[in-house]
């Protein structure tokens, strides 16, 4: 049985999501969320110290949904391109409820100190979970040994680019984003295959070394 505290936290989260949709992220206050949920302002702050923490919770939920959907979709797929396509589509599916205020979420994530900055320390746990989805994508595929350990994070970085494109995609049902995924996934798989070639491998290794230096 779900504990009352868990029920209250879920109620606050769902109330916030509803207000983000109806009023917009910027106009929604913590007080308004508390009133919508029918709980005290103190209780709202007990579960979420700020709207940023609420957004981080929504991000965590979307990653959990993406992981579950991708895991199921990967069962009958073996090639890197098809597996990557399935994981990327699962991510877009999980984010769909948040599209109306996706731009506001991006704005809240830009400051380096933001709790929802996908590259910041506060989101390290959910970031690792997200990268884990792409580890599952790579697992069992024919990826060169020198690239295998690095590829999941590189694919996640690519996914961040897809998310940014999706945020500003106002086509019906974000069909342009879907087309981007359908075209990019097999292209990435081909590029990974080409990385075995003697003329390409040194360039990839140099790029990986640069990434390591930049990350410190």
TrEMBL record:
Instruction: Supply the source organism for this entry.
Output: Arthrobacter psychrochitiniphilus
What molecular functions are annotated in GO for this chain? Answer: DNA-binding transcription factor activity; transcription cis-regulatory region binding
Q: Which UniProt keywords apply?
A: DNA-binding
At which residues is the DNA-binding region annotated? 29-48
Give start and end of each HTH tetR-type domain: 6-66
Specify the protein name. Answer: TetR family transcriptional regulator
**PROSITE patterns xref list:** HTH_TETR_2
Pfam families to which the protein is assigned, alphabetical? TetR_C_23 (PF17931), TetR_N (PF00440)
In terms of superkingdom, the source organism counts as Bacteria
Q: Coiled coil: which residue ranges?
A: none
């Amino acid at each position: 049985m779900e504990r009352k505290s868990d029920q209250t936290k879920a109620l606050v989260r769902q109330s916030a999501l509803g207000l983000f949709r109806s009023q917009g992220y910027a106009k929604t206050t913590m007080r308004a969320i508390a009133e919508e949920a029918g709980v005290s302002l103190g209780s709202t702050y007990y579960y979420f110290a700020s709207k940023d923490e609420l957004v981080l919770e929504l991000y965590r939920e979307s990653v959990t949904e993406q992981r579950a959907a991708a895991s199921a979709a990967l069962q009958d797929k073996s090639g890197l391109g098809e597996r990557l396509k399935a994981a990327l589509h699962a991510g877009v599916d999980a984010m769909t409820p948040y599209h109306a205020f996706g731009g506001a979420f991006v704005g809240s994530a830009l400051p380096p100190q933001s709790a929802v900055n996908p590259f910041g320390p506060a989101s390290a746990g959910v970031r690792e979970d997200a990268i884990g989805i792409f580890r599952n994508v790579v697992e069992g595929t024919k990826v060169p040994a020198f690239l295998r350990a690095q590829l999941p994070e590189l694919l996640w970085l690519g996914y961040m680019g897809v998310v940014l494109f999706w945020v500003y995609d106002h086509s019906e049902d974000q069909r342009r984003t879907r087309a981007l995924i359908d075209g990019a996934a097999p292209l990435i798989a081909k590029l990974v295959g080409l990385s075995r070639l003697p003329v390409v491998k040194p360039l990839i290794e140099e790029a990986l070394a640069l990434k390591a230096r930049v990350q410190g």
